[in-house]
C-alpha cells in the first residue's frame, strides 16, 4: 500500500529509491528491511498493480524501475478509500472512548 | 478478486521461469548494494569500508532471495522436489538399508495386493448386469442353513405371491456339459433358463431374439440362444445363423438368437436352452436357482417382509417342510460369493497383519538410521531448518521408501495372484476360467497406492517423533557413541519388537489352528475305501434315456464290459457319488419308533447299481446288498444306513419293514412300497465335517421313471471303477468301453477317489497353506526385527559392556544380560499376543474342525516355538557381546 502510494505520487522508482524514500517519509519509524520490501514488490507485480522494467539510471547503472499500472491505480483508489474509512471509524471509536 | 487470479497464474508461471528471474533478482540486488555503497562513499568512508557497510545495511542477501522466491511461486512445491532429490540421494547413500526396507515393504504390499486382487474380483466388483444391486435370488432358509436350489412348485408360488419381485426366472445352478455334435464334436457348457432370464439380466443381443413364453412351455420345439463367443469361435460369426439348426446331444436345436459380446453369466455358459417346465408339476426336486428384480421403489427388506407374509400360504402348499423354514431374498452377488467371503476376508486380515509387521521392521530400521543421522539433523536445524521442514524431509524419505516398496510390491502382487490361484481350490466364484477375470483395475491400483502411503505414514511416524524432542541441539554436543541411545529411544524400539511379537503370535495361532483342522479332516475316516477307485461322468440327455429301464440296461451292459477290462475289479453306477449333491425325500415306514401313521420323516436319497458298496468297500452291517436280480420287475427293495436305522428304529430291527418313499410330493416321485433288506455302514460322503445323515438307498434299476428323467436332465451319471492296478493305467480302456456301450457318448472328468476326497477339503487346505505362509513370513520378519534391535543395542552399548567386563563381569553374565533384556520384551509380546489371539480365535471358529478355538496345545506350542525363534535371534548379538575384548570395547570411540 505504502509502496503503491509512493510509486503513484513520485513515479517509477527502483528498489533502492523505494527503500530510502520509505525510510524518509516514515521518519525512520518504519524501517522496512529488504526481506520485506522485495517480497512486497513481487506480490504487487503478481497482482498486476505495478510493472517492473529495466532501464538506465541517471548515474548510468542498470536498474529495475517499478511503475504503477492502470489496475494498480484503481486498486490504490479502492484501498485508499478503504483505509480512510477504517481510520475514520477507528478515530470515532477512540473519541467515544475518551468521552466515556 | 481478479488480482488473486492473476497472482495464481503468475505463481504458476513462476514455476518455470526460474533461472531468468533469479538472474534479474541478483542484478537488482547488486544495483541496490551499489547505491548503498555510493551513499556510504559520499559520507566519506573508504571504499572497502563502504562496501562492507552497504552489505551490513542491506542485511542478508540470501535471506532476501529466499523471501523473494517464496513469494514468487509455490515454495512448498519446489521444496518438495528438493526434499525428494535429497531423499533419493540419502537413500542411495545407504543402499543396504534401502534395499532391505524396500524389499520388506514390497513383500508385505505385494502379498496384500495379490489377496486384494482376488477379494476385489470376487467381493467388490459389481456384477456385469444392469442395476445388479436390484437382482435378488430366492432361497429356502432354515435355522440350520439354506437349501441349495429351488423347485418348480416354489417357482410357481413365487410367481404368484412375490409381488415385490419382477421377472422371476429360473436357471441351472451348474452349467450342463453338452455334446455339440454338428461338425467336429465337442463339449460345450449350456445353461437351462426360463424365458424371463434374458430380460432379468439385461442380455444384449447381436442377432435374433430370445425365447418367448410359448417356447418355454413344456413340449415346445427345441430352440437355443448362442453366446457371442461360441458364435464367433464355432460358427465363424455367421450372420445368417438364426433359423439354422445345430445338433446338441444328437438332437436338432434351432438357433434363434446370439447374445452380445459383453454378456457374461455365472455360471459361464456357451449357450442357453429353455427349461420348458411343466409349471403344474408337483415335483419337489430342488434343482435350479431362481432370481428376480426388485420392483422399482421397493427395498430388499420390504420385499422380504412381503415374502414373509405369504409364508402361511406356502406352508399350506407344503413348500416349507417345517416352521423353521422360510423363503428369503438375498442380493444375487451375496448369493454367488456366500461361501468364499469369510475365507477371503480372513486372508485379507491375515495378510494385513503381515504388512503391519513389515512396517514395524522398517520403522525399526528407520529408527536406527535416525539415531545415526542425529548429527545431520542437528546441523541442519542449526543452519536454520525449521522443525516442520525437518519433519517433512523425514516424511518424504518414508513415503519415497514406501512408494518404491509399493511399485515393487505391485509386481510381486501380480505374480502372487498366479501363485494364489494355482493353489486355490478352484471353487472360488466369479474369478472366471483359471482366474481370467482377476486382474489389475483401478481398485487394485488405488488399494496398493493407499496401503503404500499408509505404510509410509505408519513406519515413518515413529522415528520422526523424536524430532520433536527437546534434545535436538544437545545431540551436537553429545559424544555420539557413548550416550547414543537414550532410554526413550530404546523403549520405542522395544515397543516395536513387542508389537511384532504379538502380531506374530496371533498369526501363528491362527495358522496352527487351521493346520490342526486340516490334520483332523485328513484323519476323518470317510467310511469308504478310496484306494484304487476312480470315477468318471457322462451326460445322458435325450429321449433314448427317458425311462429307468433303458438306463438300467445301459448300466448293466456297461458294468459287464468294464469288468472285462484287465486290471478292473468291479464297476458300479450312481447319480450321487460321494461329495456330489443329493436330494432329500420324505418317507413313511412301518415298525419305526415314531409309529406308523403318515410321513415318518425326511432322509437323503440315492440310487445305486449293484456293486456300489463293494467298489467303495462300504460294509453291509446286516442283511444283504443289492444284486442283479433286484431289477425292474422284481419286488421293491431298499437299504438304509446306520444313522437312519438308529434315528427311526432305535433298538428295533428295521430289516423286513416296509418303506414308502416320496409319497404325496408329486407323481414324478410316486414310488412303490419297498422292503428294507439291509443296513449299510455310515459314510461321511457329503462333507467330512458333517455327521452322517440318515440315508435310504434303492437299486438304480427300480428308480421311478419320473426321478430318472428329472435327475438326468440336471446331472450326469457317474461310473465308479475299482481297479487292481494303478487307476491311471486303465482310464483309457474304461472311457473307450463307456463310449462304445453308450453309443458314442463322451465320458469326462476322470478323478480318482483320492482327488475327490482332497477336493472336498481343498478349501481348508487352501486356508491352511495361505495362513501358514503368512504366519511363517510374520515369524521370519519378527526374528529379523528382534535380531536387528538387539544387535544394534549391543553395538551401542559396546563401551558399557567393556566397562562391565573391565570391572569383572564374566562372559556368561554379559550374554545373559543381553538375552534377558530381549526375552523380557519377547515375553510381554507373547502374552499380549496370546490375549489378542484368545479374543480373535472366535472369529476363526467357523473354519475349524476337530479342534476348539482355544485349543490348549496350540496356545502352548505357539509361544514355545516363537520363544525358541526369538532366543535364536537373540543368541547371535548376545554371543557377540560376550566375545568382546574389554580393551577393544573401551577403545571404541
Topology overview:
The complex is a heterodimer of chains A (100) and B (893).
Chain A: H1 2-10, E1 13-14, H2 15-25, H3 34-47, E2 50-56, E3 62-68, H4 70-99
Antiparallel strand pairs in A: 1-3, 2-3
Chain B: H1 2-14, H2 18-42, H3 47-58, H4 61-72, H5 75-93, H6 95-124, E1 135-142, E2 145-147, H7 152-161, E3 165-172, E4 176-180, E5 186-193, H8 197-200, E6 205-208, E7 223-226, H9 228-235, E8 245-248, E9 251-259, E10 271-274, E11 288-294, H10 300-309, H11 311-316, E12 326-331, H12 332-372, H13 374-382, H14 387-423, H15 442-465, H16 474-477, H17 487-523, E13 533-538, H18 548-563, E14 568-574, E15 583-589, E16 601-608, H19 612-615, E17 620-623, E18 637-641, H20 642-649, E19 658-661, E20 674-680, E21 695-699, H21 705-714, E22 717-723, H22 731-741, E23 748-752, H23 753-760, H24 762-796, H25 798-806, H26 811-844, H27 856-882, H28 886-891
Parallel strand pairs in B: 5-10, 7-9, 16-21, 18-20
Antiparallel strand pairs in B: 1-2, 1-11, 1-12, 3-11, 4-5, 6-9, 7-10, 8-9, 13-22, 13-23, 14-22, 15-16, 15-19, 17-20, 18-21, 19-20
Helix pairs in contact in B: 2-3, 5-14, 6-12, 6-14, 6-15, 12-15, 12-17, 12-24, 14-15, 17-24, 17-26, 17-27, 18-22, 24-27, 26-27
Mean of all residue-level pLDDT scores of chain A: 76
Count of runs of 4 or more consecutive helical residues of chain A = 4
CATH structural class of chain A: Mainly Alpha
Report the biggest beta sheet of chain A as strand number plus sense, adding barrel if it closes: 3 strands, antiparallel
Whole-number radius of gyration of chain A?
16 Å
Counting DSSP H or I runs of 4 or more residues, the number of helices of chain B is 28
Count of individual beta strands of chain B: 23
CATH homology superfamily of chain A: Winged helix-like DNA-binding domain superfamily/Winged helix DNA-binding domain
- The unreliable regions of chain B are 478-485
Number of domains of chain B: 5
Oligomer: heterodimer
Order of helices and strands of chain A: HEHHEEH
Helix coverage percent of chain B? 40-55%
Largest interface: A-B, 25 and 27 residues
- Find the structural class of chain A using helix and strand composition: alpha+beta
Order of adjacent strands in the largest pleated sheet of chain A: 1-3-2
Number of domains of chain A: 1
Kindly name the structural category of chain B.
Answer: alpha+beta
Quote the distance from N terminus to C terminus of chain A: 34 Å
For the record, the CATH architecture of chain A stands as Orthogonal Bundle
Amino acid at each position: 500500500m505504502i509502496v503503491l502510494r509512493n510509486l503513484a505520487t513520485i513515479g517509477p522508482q527502483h528498489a533502492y529509491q523505494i527503500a530510502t524514500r520509505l525510510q524518509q517519509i516514515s521518519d525512520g519509524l518504519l524501517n522496512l528491511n529488504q526481506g520485506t520490501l522485495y517480497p512486497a514488490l513481487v506480490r504487487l507485480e503478481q497482482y498486476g498493480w505495478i510493472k517492473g522494467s529495466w532501464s538506465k539510471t541517471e548515474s548510468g547503472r542498470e536498474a529495475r524501475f517499478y511503475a504503477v499500472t492502470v489496475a494498480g491505480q484503481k486498486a490504490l483508489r479502492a484501498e485508499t478509500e478503504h483505509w480512510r474509512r477504517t481510520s475514520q471509524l477507528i478515530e470515532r471509536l477512540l473519541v467515544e472512548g475518551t468521552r466515556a | 478478486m481478479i488480482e488473486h487470479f492473476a497472482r495464481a497464474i503468475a505463481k504458476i508461471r513462476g514455476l518455470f521461469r526460474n533461472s531468468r528471474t533469479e538472474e534479474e533478482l541478483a542484478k537488482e540486488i547488486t544495483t541496490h548494494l551499489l547505491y548503498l555503497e555510493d551513499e556510504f562513499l559520499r559520507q566519506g568512508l573508504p571504499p572497502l569500508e563502504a562496501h562492507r557497510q552497504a552489505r551490513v545495511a542491506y542485511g542478508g542477501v540470501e535471506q532476501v532471495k529466499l523471501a523473494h522466491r517464496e513469494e514468487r511461486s509455490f515454495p512448498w512445491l519446489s521444496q518438495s522436489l528438493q526434499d525428494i532429490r535429497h531423499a533419493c540421494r540419502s537413500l542411495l547413500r545407504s543402499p543396504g538399508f534401502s534395499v532391505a526396507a524396500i524389499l520388506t515393504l514390497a513383500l508385505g504390499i505385494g502379498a496384500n495386493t495379490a489377496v486384494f486382487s482376488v477379494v476385489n474380483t470376487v467381493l467388490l466388483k459389481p456384477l456385469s448386469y444392469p442395476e445388479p444391486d436390484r437382482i435378488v435370488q430366492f432361497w429356502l432358509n432354515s435355522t440350520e442353513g439354506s437349501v441349495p436350489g429351488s423347485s418348480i412348485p416354489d417357482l410357481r408360488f413365487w410367481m404368484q405371491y412375490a409381488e415385490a419381485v419382477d421377472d422371476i426366472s429360473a436357471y441351472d445352478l451348474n452349467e450342463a456339459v453338452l455334446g455339440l455334435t454338428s461338425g467336429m464334436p465337442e463339449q460345450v457348457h449350456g445353461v437351462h433358463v426360463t424365458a424371463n432370464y434374458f430380460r432379468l439380466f439385461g442380455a444384449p443381443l447381436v442377432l435374433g431374439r430370445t425365447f418367448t413364453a410359448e417356447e418355454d412351455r413344456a413340449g415346445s420345439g427345441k430352440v437355443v440362444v448362442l453366446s457371442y463367443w461360441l458364435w464367433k469361435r464355432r460358427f465363424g460369426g455367421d450372420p445368417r445363423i438364426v433359423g439354422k439348426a445345430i445338433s446338441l446331444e444328437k438332437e436338432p436345436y434351432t438357433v434363434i438368437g446370439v447374445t452380445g459380446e459383453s454378456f457374461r453369466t455365472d455360471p459361464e455358459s456357451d449357450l442357453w436352452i429353455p427349461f420348458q417346465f411343466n409349471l403344474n408339476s408337483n415335483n419337489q426336486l430342488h434343482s435350479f436357482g431362481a432370481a428376480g428384480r426388485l420392483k422399482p421403489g421397493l427395498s430388499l427388506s420390504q420385499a422380504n417382509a412381503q415374502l414373509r407374509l405369504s409364508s402361511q400360504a406356502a406352508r399350506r402348499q407344503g413348500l416349507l417342510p417345517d416352521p423353521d423354514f422360510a423363503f428369503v431374498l438375498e442380493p444375487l452377488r451375496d448369493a454367488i460369493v456366500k461361501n468364499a467371503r469369510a475365507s477371503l476376508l480372513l486372508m485379507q486380515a491375515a495378510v494385513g497383519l503381515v504388512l503391519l509387521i513389515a512396517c514395524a521392521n522398517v520403522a525399526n530400521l528407520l529408527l536406527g538410521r535416525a539415531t545415526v543421522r542425529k548429527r545431520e539433523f542437528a546441523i541442519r536445524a542449526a543452519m536454520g531448518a525449521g522443525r516442520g521442514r525437518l519433519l517433512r524431509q523425514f516424511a518424504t524419505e518414508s513415503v519415497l521408501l514406501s512408494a518404491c516398496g509399493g511399485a515393487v510390491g505391485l509386481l510381486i502382487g501380480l505374480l502372487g495372484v498366479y501363485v494364489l490361484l494355482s493353489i486355490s481350490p478352484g471353487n472360488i466364484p466369479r474369478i472366471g476360467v483359471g482366474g481370467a477375470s482377476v486382474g489389475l483395475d483401478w481398485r487394485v491400483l488405488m488399494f496398493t497406492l493407499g496401503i503404500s502411503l499408509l505404510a509410509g505414514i505408519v513406519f515413518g511416524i515413529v522415528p520422526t517423533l523424536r524430532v520433536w524432542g527437546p534434545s535436538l541441539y544437545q545431540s551436537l554436543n553429545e559424544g555420539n557413541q557413548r550416550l547414543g541411545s537414550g532410554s526413550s529411544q530404546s523403549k520405542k524400539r522395544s515397543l516395536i519388537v513387542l508389537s511384532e511379537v504379538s502380531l506374530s503370535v496371533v498369526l501363528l495361532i491362527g495358522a496352527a489352528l487351521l493346520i490342526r483342522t486340516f490334520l483332523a479332516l485328513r484323519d476323518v475316516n470317510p467310511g469308504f475305501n478310496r484306494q484304487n477307485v476312480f470315477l468318471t461322468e457322462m451326460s445322458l440327455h435325450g429321449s433314448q434315456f427317458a425311462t429307468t429301464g433303458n438306463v438300467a440296461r445301459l448300466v448293466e451292459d456297461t458294468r459287464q464290459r468294464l469288468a472285462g477290462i484287465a486290471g478292473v475289479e468291479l464297476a458300479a453306477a450312481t447319480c450321487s457319488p460321494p461329495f456330489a449333491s443329493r436330494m432329500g425325500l420324505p418317507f413313511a415306514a412301518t415298525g419305526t419308533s415314531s409309529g406308523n401313521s403318515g410321513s415318518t420323516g425326511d432322509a437323503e436319497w440315492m440310487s445305486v447299481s449293484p456293486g456300489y458298496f463293494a467298489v467303495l468297500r462300504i460294509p453291509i452291517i446286516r442283511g444283504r446288498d443289492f444284486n442283479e436280480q433286484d431289477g425292474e420287475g422284481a419286488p421293491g427293495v431298499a437299504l438304509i444306513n446306520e444313522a437312519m436305522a438308529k434315528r427311526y428304529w432305535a433298538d428295533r430291527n428295521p430289516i423286513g419293514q416296509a418303506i414308502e418313499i416320496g409319497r404325496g410330493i408329486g407323481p414324478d416321485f410316486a414310488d412303490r412300497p419297498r422292503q428294507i433288506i439291509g443296513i449299510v455302514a455310515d459314510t461321511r460322503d457329503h462333507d467330512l465335517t458333517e455327521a452322517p445323515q440318515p440315508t435310504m438307498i434303492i437299486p438304480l434299476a427300480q428308480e421311478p421313471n419320473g426321478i430318472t428323467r428329472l435327475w438326468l436332465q440336471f446331472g450326469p451319471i457317474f461310473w465308479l471303477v475299482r481297479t487292481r492296478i494303478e487307476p491311471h493305467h486303465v482310464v483309457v480302456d474304461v472311457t473307450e468301453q463307456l463310449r462304445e456301450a453308450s453309443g458314442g457318448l463322451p465320458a469326462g472328468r476322470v478323478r480318482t477317489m483320492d482327488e475327490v476326497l482332497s477336493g472336498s477339503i481343498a478349501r481348508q487346505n487352501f486356508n491352511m497353506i495361505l495362513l501358514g505362509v503368512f504366519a511363517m513370513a510374520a515369524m521370519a520378519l519378527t526374528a529379523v526385527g528382534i535380531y536387528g534391535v538387539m544387535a544394534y543395542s549391543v553395538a551401542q552399548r559396546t563401551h558399557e559392556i567393556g566397562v562391565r567386563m573391565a570391572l569383572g563381569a564374566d562372559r556368561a553374565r554379559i550374554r545373559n544380560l543381553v538375552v534377558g533384556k530381549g526375552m523380557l520384551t519377547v515375553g510381554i509380546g507373547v502374552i499380549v499376543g496370546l490375549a489378542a489371539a484368545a479374543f480373535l480365535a472366535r472369529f476363526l471358529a467357523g473354519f475349524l474342525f476337530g479342534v476348539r478355538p482355544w485349543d490348549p496345545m496350540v496356545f502352548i506350542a505357539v509361544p514355545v516355538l516363537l520363544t525358541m525363534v526369538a532366543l535364536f535371534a537373540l543368541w547371535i548379538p548376545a554371543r557377540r557381546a560376550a566375545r568382546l575384548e574389554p580393551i577393544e570395547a573401551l577403545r571404541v570411540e
